[in-house]
Give the backbone structure.
Amino acid sequence: MSPHRSDAPLRTAVVGTGGIARAGHLPALRTLAAEGKTEVVAAVDVDGTAVRAFADSFSIPYASTDLDAMLAEVRPDLVVLCTPPAVHREQSVAALRAGAWVWCEKPPCPSLADYDAIEAAEKGGDADPYASIVFQHRFGSGARHVRRLLRAGAFGRPLVAHCQTTWYRDAAYYAAPWRGHWATEGGGPAMGHGIHQTDLLLDLMGPWSEVRGMAARLVHDVETEDVSTAQVRFEGGAVATLVNSVVSPDEVSRIRIDCEHATIELTHLYGYRNADWHITPAPGVPEATAAGWRDFGADEPSSHLAQLRCLVDDIAAGRRHDTSGPGGRRTLEFITALYKSAFTDTPVRAGDIGPGDPYYTELHGGAPGWAPAGSGEEDHA
Ligand SMILES: NC(=O)c1ccc[n+]([C@@H]2O[C@H](COP(=O)([O-])OP(=O)(O)OC[C@H]3O[C@@H](n4cnc5c(N)ncnc54)[C@H](O)[C@@H]3O)[C@@H](O)[C@H]2O)c1
């Protein structure tokens, strides 16, 4: 049974006190604290100066450089992981073993093997602590509205989709020593940047069945790719194209889904509001129907707050959160398949990659020094 009393604030520890902890998690946790739903009881970071400054600025009573000591002494209900992906597995497992729920930043962890090890550390009951992933784009009012209409069949069958994360990162960004390496960043833009739009696309479109990927290293001096593209087939028959890039000066995040009765478009950069969604009805759709589709209701932007509110309610109700278990694994499996397809030049089907497959344990499939196909580099790899 859950150790958490649903009427008590969720005692929360923040692990990793860098950029996203300050910009995304703390504001969300403090908003819910004001509503009596959360209480930030501890902060942990390997950098002692950083964690003390973080705790002092936000009046957090416990600061430490030692995660295990914090788990033993504070016994938090929820551990929020804002650390780099390479440590997500060990920290998620430690928190679960200490009886805490986990909300872990994307990318979930560097491989499906890591993800499965995290799931194996859960006790398994709906009311038992589980690990969930930060995929905040699923939780804005826009996605909620469109998902409900899609699943109800209001737009007819989804037919063809585009999913685009075309961003720009300069050499200074890649000067940080952990960036651009498989072991520390987890992957290139397919894993680190496009993951949000990919996750939302998969959430809206339903189960995918096959992916054919390409990857390239065009600008940056990195181990990973800096561009990837993919063609995707979904179980329902629809097809989609994906582009993930960090070399695109005119930055945009975009999803477009053409259905039998409407085109749905989302255009934004790092987060959306209702006004960023556009629905175009097919000829013959009654105006009253289209007006209903365009009524998104109260505006709740995609944000850490929107997802945390839902997670806290799920924990209190003893429900699995949407980005836990298979709902968090699906996007990592898809990205793994995209890399495998790109590096082996073959289509990859959903469910193909399991224990024994080199891509199950490493997104580069055992070849971190891969060379882009057709680049000429492969002769010297
Ligand atoms: N959801 C989003 O929109 C979003 C946006 C930005 C970053 N992120 C993700 O959040 C994570 C952190 O990114 P960031 O930009 O905040 O990085 P950052 O470098 O600013 O902060 C990371 C912090 O973790 C600390 N740290 C490193 N190893 C640790 C360990 N073993 N134990 C405890 N602390 C440790 C570092 O000292 C640093 O303070 C990454 O996985 C990143 O992809 C998500």
Notes: The pocket of nicotinamide-adenine-dinucleotide is lined by residues 15-21, 44-47, 50, 82-85, 87, 105-106, 134, 136, 192 (CB under 6 Å). Residues 40 and 301 are 23 Å apart (CA to CA).
